[in-house]
Amino acid sequence: MKKILPFIIILLAATNANAQLISRFTWESNPVTTAVAGANAISVSSYATSANGGNNGTKGLSPGTGSNDINLVLDGSNFNVPALDIAVDFRREESQASFFYRGSNFNFGMNSGNLAASFQLTSGGSYITINSGNVFSIPDDHSFHNYHFNYDNNTGIAKIWTDNVLVYTYNGTAGLPMYWTGAGNVTIGREMDATGRNIAVLDNMTIQMHANALLPLTLVSFTAALENNLPRLNWKTTEEYRVHSFVLERSSDGTSFSAITTVPASNVYNGVSDYSFTDSSFKGTVAYYRLKMVNVNGSHTYSAVKTVSVAGNSKAGISVYPNPTVDFVTIKMNNAKAAQYQYTVTSITGMVVVSATVQLNNGINQVKIDLTKTAVKGALIIHISNTQNDTTETFTVIKK
């Protein structure tokens, strides 16, 4: 029970409960590669071990015997996040050490006895590097202190705390995510050997994505068009993070949608992902499509609805064109004999846009319907009925 209370206090002070956890270590036991929550490490120095002397009388992570760096390595793919929050307890036994290191992309730790951080942010097609410089002289008192880094891409602000006291603030440009292209794996305890002492120097490390990070992706484009007389759906994304899949949904009326395929997400953050799907099961004349973007936690968002229409839109000697239209639509009919017809145009919610009764002769007839007097756009349903034999045909047109 000694471990739980101080750990909870640290979490409440240093992190946001709504943040998304990536990894948490307490190093209470071996193997030290095992996280108490989130992603485990994939390797560590063969000398590194769980040792007595951790924060508040608990165990912590020690370099072990000899003068070997801890070098606890985690799979970098778990850390390709737009915003990062790191909190750790550290006891100084040397003058150079990295708490969290990912090459030139990110380094948070001790530089010649001083607390410092450097990190890269995506800027257009490239990146910018931010260096905090030496922001705090880490006490050489052989006692644990808490060090905390946070970057929020929603605001563009980075902060560093020591023992919950703010020692550094970077006020950047809102909306810039962290840059991880080619960053590789993460190393905890790089250049950290405690100068040969077999003593716990790290404890209670929590790495998470900042609660306000922009999620889960940016939908660059979503298009639908006919290709070889079949609907072809294409979409591009960027800044994907922990996206589970894309569910492509189809509707015949623009209201009731059902899933037709699920495409796994690539989860490329610093880059563009291209996806496509051909709807070979399409049989009608008009179809509506939308993209359901599903996050790993089950939450989801929808794209705008896209429409595909087969030219002609004809049935049993009746055709409706142009489709889509911006102003007028024409019904063309080839009647075996003269008859009275009624047509009604409604929105997909059932609101009547226009309605009229016309007398048509035998042979080819054309009825031009004026849609300029309605502000309704999108899917419109045309019902045309022969009032003498009660037969009805239904068409869907798109008004732009």
Short key terms for the protein model shown above:
Immunoglobulin-like, rod-shaped, Jelly Rolls, five-stranded antiparallel beta sheet, mainly beta, disordered N terminus, seven-stranded antiparallel beta sheet, 3% helix, 400 residues, 3 domains
Description:
This protein has about 400 residues and is mainly β. About 5% of the residues lie in helices and about 50% in strands. It contains one helix and 32 strands. A hairpin with a 2-residue loop joins strand 13 (about 155-160) and strand 14 (about 165-170). It starts with a helix and ends with a strand. Residues about 1-20 have low confidence and may be disordered.
Biggest β-sheet, characterized? 7 strands, antiparallel
Tell me the Rg in angstroms.
Answer: 31 Å
**Unreliably modeled segments:** 1-18
Structural class: mainly beta
CATH class of the largest domain: Mainly Beta
Oligomeric form: single chain
| Lateral arrangement of strands in the main beta sheet | 2-1-16-6-12-13-14
**Cα distance spanning the termini:** 66 Å
Average pLDDT level: 85
CATH topology of the largest domain: Jelly Rolls
Helical run tally: 1
Share of residues in strands: over 45%
Give the name of the CATH architecture of the largest domain. Sandwich
Globally, the shape reads: rod-shaped
What is the tally of beta strands?
32
User: Which percent range fits the helix content?
Assistant: under 10%
**Domain count:** 3
